[in-house]
Amino acid sequence: MVRKISAAVVILTGLFASLLLFAYTTFQQNVNGTATPSRWPSANVTWSLNPTTGTNVDDTSGTSPVPAATVLANAFSAWQGAQLNGQSVTTLNVTRGADSSKTDPDGSDCTNLITFVPSSSVQFATGIIATTTVTSVFGPVPSTYNCGSTPLQTAQPSQIIDADIAFNPQYQFSTSTPSLPGHYDLESVAIHEVGHLLGLEHDGIAHAAMYPFGDTGIGQTRTLSPDDVAGIAYLYPAAGFNSMTGNISGQVSLNGDGVYAAHVVAVDKNSGAAVVDGLSGPNGDYTLQGVPPGTYQILVEPLTGVYTLSDFSGWTCGYATNPNDCSSAPQNATNYASVFY
Amino acid sequence: MRLRTLQFIFAVLIVVAPCRATTFVHLSLTQLSRASTAIVSGRATKQECRWNADHSMIMTLTTITVDQVEKGLRLKTLVVEQPGGVLGNLQMRTDGTARFYPLASYVLFLESSHSGPGHFMPVGMMQGVFRIYRDAGTGIEHVIPPVQGEWGEAPGSHLTRVEMTPSLSQFESRVRGILASPIEIPQGLALRVALAPGWNQGQGNLAVEARTVGVAFPNPDLVIPAGSSLAGEACRLKHGWRIRWTSLDIRGEKAKFAAVSHLASGKPLKEAVLSVIAE
Predict the structure, then answer these.
(1) Is B3 part of the contact surface with chain A (CB cutoff 8 Å)?
(2) Domain check: are A69 and A161 in the same one?
(3) Are residues A300 and A159 part of one domain?
């Protein structure tokens, strides 16, 4: 079973602080001053595809290529079918809706569009392979919101009402296994973007589907990591999920002082794989949740990878020493250069 | 806890990082610099969210009061546009966008937006936004790299962190060094380009321009954004055209680009897309 590193009880200093203690991160919305995870109502999601693809999407060459639409269906299935030790962890219910002729994301039409052919009015910054825009609401839906006959209910708490994925037509995608040289693996990118569509943000573990950086060629992951599984189960948990996993909690300190925002990683002692990660809170406390049964060592390192101190919603100026003065230095948290086990 | 050697940590992290999901290309500081139409340092002095023109997307517009320009036009203020934002109880979020804090200072790597002069978006989204802070003890200004591992690490490695927050002066010096160095086009680099219409009208040798189709990342020191301009000279032959390419303009910086293309006369000439391979 999970090795408990410390018996320290983590006292959450508020929901914003608690966000830092999760390995995965989710989209949050400020609901009357409280950061609240955004979810699809009743865990039901319907997506629509514009089936048109440009010449940048190669779904006929290489080994066992499959149509782009199949790749996207696989990506949704990966999340819907997330398992831990053979048991389903989520109640997510995904449906493919009617195809759409729309080319551009529209966060106000309540159609969850996936497009390979965004028009030139959709701007991609250099280095961006694909984007997902998630629209969420709490309380009454704005009267200007254009959802046609879709019956929107008053959403409490934060409810996702629209999410669109746009693949950058300036990049080459492949559905071959493995991906064609010089191409991005469409399924890998799709799994990542669908994770956003479902409500997950970026993850700091490099082999997680929600880790944001990648390259062309082989080695792009098409499977969910335990961290991804924990994330989707947190948003849409199956009954009994909590009994399948445990927590690891403790405190990170340096010279007697709690270390704020240290990157804490549970590493499987046998395989050496990073399984779940998170960040320490303001006094160095951390809790890694959703840890599968196993034996772990805890790796502590300076905050790195995709996370930066200013990446966390709710923290004025990120981790500035003086929260009212954004020009001040980050707190002492990650000023150490070493890595600890 | 006990300290382990960096070598051991490298081994662990290599084990845990064999596969990556993809949505961003990790841009080096050199690539950020090359892909920028403007590199400035300045303060976030105003921010507003509003719907775009067709009411399909909330945009966040952050006004930057410019203190220093390293590349591009000398503007006093500029606007950074990013998708997403909050209007009332409605929120749109595009992951990977940068957060700006009131009156905080930043070094920004920017590329032009369609919205017009003075409007930009960060290169590589949050990758192009480096927050500046002043160390209370020393009074020295530092920058926080948005993606750690870039500063001081071995090329291609995400593992070493020699200096997590370089001083602003070190950082600026490095950027200036990059901008002062010539762009090297690797031999054999293949670019897909679209010829500008109308290039073949006229007599004698004709100036030709083409724009790159798609983005290329030939190596960690180079990025060729879509729309980069390739220039050359076309010569009419008996059965077609020979184009001798001479230069590539990457966001205002010119690089020597030697290549020759041959076009048969029967091929449609207007807006032809061809592959050009650097010699």
Answers:
(1) yes
(2) yes
(3) no
In a domain, A178, yes or no: yes
* Interval A266-291 mean pLDDT: 80
Residues pairing with A135 in the sheet = A162, B92
Specify if A86 maps to a domain: yes
Cα–Cα distance between B132 and A316 in angstroms, integer? 15
Of A254-258, B50-54, B193-197, the least confident: A254-258
Residues A194 and A263 in one domain: no
Domain shared by A20 and A40, yes or no = no
- A324 with A266, same domain? yes
What percentage of residues in chain B have a pLDDT greater than 90?
49
What average pLDDT does range B160-180 have in this prediction?
A: 81
* CATH code at position A270: 2.60.40
**For residue A68, what are the CA distances in angstroms to A53, A56, A114, A168, B174?**
8, 12, 11, 14, 43
**Pairwise CB contact (< 8 Å): B132 & A327:** yes
How confident is the model over B202-223, as a mean pLDDT? 87
Nearest to A132 among B22, B95, B145 (CB): B95
Task: For residue A213, give Cα distances in angstroms to A204, A207, A210, A236, B108.
Answer: 10, 10, 9, 26, 20
Q: What is the pTM of this model?
A: 0.82
pLDDT of amino acid B156: 35
Which structural domain, as residue segments, surrounds residue A143? 36-199
Contact between B21 and A210 using a beta-carbon 8 Å cutoff: yes
* Partner-chain contact B135 A189, CB within 8 Å: no
- Domain co-membership, A67 together with A188: yes
A20 and A69 housed in the same domain: no
Reported confidence tier of residue A22, pLDDT bands at 50, 70, 90 = very low
Given A164, A199, A234, the domain boundary residue is A199
ipTM: 0.85
Q: Tell which residue, A272, A296, A292, has the closest CA to residue A230.
A: A292
Residue A230's SS3 state is: helix
The answer to whether residue A87 sits within a structural domain is yes
Share of chain B above pLDDT 70, in %: 81
The identity of residue B158, as a single letter, is: H
Structural domain total, chain A: 2
> CA–CA separation, A304 vs A321, rounded Å?
19
Confirm whether A5 is domain-assigned.
Answer: no
Sort out which chain B residues have CB atoms less than 8 A from A103's CB and list them: none
Residues of A in contact with B102 (CB under 8 A): 326
For residues A206 and A219, the model is more confident at A206
In order of A340, B154, B162, the CA distances from B5 in angstroms are: 9, 17, 14
